[in-house]
Each structure stands twice: as structure tokens, then as C-alpha cells.
Design a protein that fits this description.
Elements: H1 2-55, H2 62-74, E1 82-84, H3 86-95, E2 99-102, E3 105-110, E4 113-119, H4 124-128, E5 135-139, E6 142-143, H5 149-156, E7 163-169, E8 177-182, E9 184-187, E10 191-197, E11 200-205, H6 212-227, E12 232-236, H7 245-254, E13 260-265, E14 272-276, E15 288-292, H8 299-309, E16 314-317, E17 325-331, E18 337-346, E19 362-363, H9 369-379, H10 394-401, H11 411-420, H12 429-435, H13 438-448, H14 450-453
Parallel strand pairs: 11-12, 12-15, 15-16, 16-19
Antiparallel strand pairs: 1-18, 2-9, 3-4, 4-5, 5-6, 5-7, 7-8, 10-11, 13-14, 13-18, 17-18
Helix pairs in contact: 6-7, 7-8, 9-11, 11-12
């Protein structure tokens, strides 16, 4: 009996060993096959490079050829994967510190066309009249067709004080226009604040750079100190092209007690990285409304998604841009750099931001103040109820009993009558903001009505 057990034990162990050896042999074969295939491809590249070096009609710059080959390879991938030669990579590193030279714009490739995602406020491009959504068809007379983001970036950079001409196509315009921009130093102020009165605050976050979370905390602390409390916070992230992921996480963490902020999933679906709230959120007890639009992208979408899914904020405005991919930046040996897409962002509810964006809880269409003002002035007519001392109607009497203003309008008409028709010299900073910005006015009305709207965030 003992010998029989030993026999079966030996048989099982032998079979397991053969299985392991078979798997190792199969895996080894696959690895060798992959290596041989890659070697053959690299051998072809090496042969072509060698032939060019030996027989091309003129002397060639080998490094230039290699850089060109790398750029060509990356064109087969998404537009956010870029190779940056040493000088360009050096410029890239300075951009996230908050001060750099150039035009001050965020660009992307949309449907093969170089497109302005957002001009940075107060930067040269902003001052020259470049707008989000402008399609750049030529730079200094050179067509942008087939141009990569990295190549466009190189052409747009130059000495401070030098000029560049961008030919742009703008929606609802028949002909392209040439806009001259004077290059200059771009110092980003990523957090801008306006006191809205009655304890309410407006904060515009223009981008996420290395000091954004600290600057936002200072603004909130100052407001609470001056007003003794925070009745509500309106965060404006329209035209915010994004920036540093760690800053988006820190900003989200400030307003959350707990929960997931964002998760990233790369090629291996089992390797999931999750950023969660630290449970140290200082500002968790006042209402927040976040205003977004179609040019709200990347890091700003992460903050919007985190606070929306965790039922911490009401998102209003328009569906966001949908830039939900993660790039890693790798510095290479010669000082050049590779910006490589390695993963996708997912909101706490597991929804991919990529190409989908963040859907607002309440949509608010934009209104051109000048166009609306001209249209409303033409349509204004005096009615019986507008005449002083008029005989009151039944509805007007009922409204007085309920302490409701008769004729209280909603939407754009209410905005125009409240602040849109007033003279600038008579306006407070709050009203100056709202006169030029219907969406912000509407977003603030939702913030003030937070208790009524709580159900929308559940």
C-alpha cells in the first residue's frame, strides 16, 4: 500500500514538473518570437539609417533623422503623446512652475486641426483676442496641416517681444482672420477671487500649477476670516485646460470628508491606481457649485467628477471637453523628453472621462451680453403695469400678500434686468462680474437656492 502511494505521488509530481516545463518552454518560445520580430524591425530601421548615412546625396544630421523617426512613430498614437527635443523639454518643465515665455495658450489636435483649447487669462494670446475654439490653420504663413502638437509648440515659441501671426478660423465667421500676438512672459495666476456678498465667494481656477491648492486655501481662509463664515462657494473652471494631477487631487481633497477622488487604469486592467480623500478636508460644511463648459479639460474634469460623484458639489454649465487620458513624462539621457499616454482617468463612479467629459447636473447655455442687450432693448415696451400709480390686478395683489415680487423673471431676462442693463460705473465688483457673464449669474442663483436643489445632488 505504501509503495502504491509513493508511486502515485511520484507520478503526480512528475506530471506537474512536465506541465511547468511545457509552460516555460511555450512562454520562452513566445518571448523569443517577440524578440526576433522586434529585432527584425529594428534591423530594418538600422539598415535604412545606415544607407542614408552612406549614400544620401548630401551630408545628413543623424540625430535629426533619429528625432524625426521618433516623431513619425508617435504620430501613430494619440495626439497627447509627444517627443520633445532638449530645448522644448526644458521649456515644458518651466511651464508647470507658473512662469514662462510664449503666447500663453493650451492647444490640441481636433479632427486633424490645431485647435485652441484655452488662452491663459491676461497672457499675450488672451490680450490679442485669441479665443477658445479658434482653429489655427497657419503660423507665420506656414500651414499647420499635419503638424504635431510638439512642432506647433516650437513654432509658437520665440524671443520675448517678437511677433507671431496666427491665422485662425472662428465659428460663425466666413473668412479666416490673422491675429498678431507679441510674445511675452506668461505668469499664471491660477486662482482669482471675488467676494459676492452675504458670505458667498466666487473663485476662478484658470489652471492647475504647482501652487494652485495653496493659493485656493489662502483665498478660502481669507474669505472666511473677513465674513466670519462661508455661505457658499462658486468655483468657475470654464476654459481651464488642466495641469498637474497632484494639484487636482489636493483641491478635491480640501472639500471631501471621504471617498474616491479619481482612479487610473492602464493597459493592464488589473493594475488600478486609486486616489482617495485623506479625511482631512477642511471645507466640507458649505455648498459648492462648479461652473464648467466645453473647454474645461483634464485636471479640472477630475475635480468636477470627484465632487459630483461624491455628492459634494452641483455641476452646472455645459458638457466638458473629455480629455481623460494620463500622460507620464520621461526625461531621456540627452535632455530630451517623452510625454507618453499610459492610462485613462475614471471618476469615482467608474465612468471614463475620455471623449465623454463630465455632464453637468444642470445645463446653462451661454449668452452674449452685447447681442442680448441689443435684442432686449429693441423689444422693450411699456405696459399698463409699468405706469406709476396703475390700478393693481388680482395677481399683483396676491403676490403682495405672499411677499413675492410681481413680474420676477427667470433666466436671461432676469439677468439683464438685474445687472445686464446697469451702467458700469454704478456696479460693484460682484455686479461687474455678472454683467459680463450670464452663466456665472445663473450659477450663483443656483448656489443661493442650494437647500431647494439638494435633491439634485443625491
Amino acid at each position: 500500500m505504501q509503495s502504491l502511494k509513493r508511486y502515485w505521488k511520484t507520478y503526480i509530481l512528475g506530471g506537474a514538473l512536465l506541465l511547468v516545463l511545457f509552460i516555460m518552454a511555450e512562454t520562452g518560445f513566445q518571448v523569443r518570437a517577440f524578440a526576433q520580430e522586434r529585432y527584425a524591425d529594428l534591423q530594418n530601421f538600422s539598415k535604412v539609417l545606415n544607407l542614408i548615412q552612406q549614400y544620401y546625396v548630401e551630408e545628413v544630421n543623424t540625430k535629426k533623422l533619429v528625432y524625426g523617426a521618433i516623431k513619425g512613430m508617435l504620430r501613430e498614437l494619440d495626439p497627447h503623446t509627444n517627443f520633445m527635443p532638449p530645448e522644448m523639454f526644458k521649456d515644458f518643465e518651466t511651464e508647470t512652475s507658473g512662469e514662462f515665455g510664449g503666447l500663453g495658450i493650451e492647444i490640441s489636435i481636433q479632427n486633424g486641426i490645431l485647435t485652441i483649447i484655452s488662452p491663459i487669462e491676461d497672457a499675450p494670446a488672451w490680450e490679442a483676442g485669441i479665443k477658445a475654439g479658434d482653429k489655427v490653420v497657419a503660423i507665420d504663413g506656414t500651414t499647420t496641416k499635419g503638424m504635431s502638437l510638439a512642432e506647433a509648440s516650437v513654432m509658437m515659441r520665440g524671443k520675448k517681444g517678437s511677433k507671431i501671426v496666427l491665422r485662425v478660423v472662428r465659428d460663425n465667421e466666413d473668412k479666416p482672420r490673422d491675429i498678431t500676438v507679441v510674445r511675452g512672459s506668461v505668469k499664471i495666476k491660477s486662482v482669482k477671487y471675488t467676494d459676492l456678498g452675504d458670505g458667498f465667494a466666487y473663485v476662478r481656477i484658470t489652471s492647475f500649477i504647482e501652487n494652485t491648492s495653496k493659493d485656493l486655501q489662502k483665498v478660502v481662509e481669507t474669505h472666511i476670516k473677513n465674513n466670519k463664515n462661508m455661505s457658499g462657494l462658486l468655483i468657475d473652471m470654464r476654459r481651464n485646460p488642466g495641469g498637474l494631477l497632484d494639484q487636482a487631487i489636493k483641491v478635491s481633497d480640501m472639500f471631501l470628508k471621504q471617498g474616491t477622488i479619481v482612479s487610473t487604469i492602464g493597459r493592464n486592467k488589473n493594475e488600478k491606481e486609486v486616489a482617495t480623500a485623506s479625511k482631512k478636508g477642511q471645507y466640507t460644511n458649505f455648498p459648492i457649485v462648479i461652473l464648467v463648459n466645453e473647454y474645461t479639460a483634464s485636471a479640472s474634469e477630475i475635480v468636477s467628477g470627484a465632487l459630483q460623484d461624491n455628492k459634494r458639489a452641483l455641476i452646472v454649465g455645459q458638457r466638458t471637453f473629455g480629455k481623460g487620458s494620463v500622460q507620464s513624462v520621461i526625461k531621456l539621457g540627452d535632455g530630451s523628453g517623452l510625454k507618453l499616454t499610459v492610462a485613462r482617468y475614471y471618476t469615482p463612479n467608474g465612468v471614463s472621462i475620455q471623449a465623454e467629459g463630465i455632464h453637468p447636473d444642470i445645463e446653462i447655455e451661454d449668452v452674449d451680453p452685447d447681442a442680448f442687450s441689443k435684442a432686449i432693448v429693441k423689444s422693450v415696451t411699456t405696459r399698463e403695469g409699468d405706469i406709476a400709480g396703475h390700478l393693481k390686478g388680482d395677481r399683483e395683489k396676491a403676490a403682495e400678500k405672499l411677499d413675492v415680487k410681481e413680474g420676477a423673471e427667470e433666466g436671461a431676462l432676469a439677468w439683464w434686468k438685474d445687472v445686464g442693463s446697469k451702467k458700469d460705473e454704478k456696479l460693484s465688483p460682484r455686479d461687474k462680474l455678472f454683467k459680463a457673464d450670464y452663466q456665472a449669474y445663473q450659477a450663483f442663483s443656483y448656489l443661493k437656492a442650494w437647500d431647494t436643489l439638494k435633491a439634485l445632488t443625491r
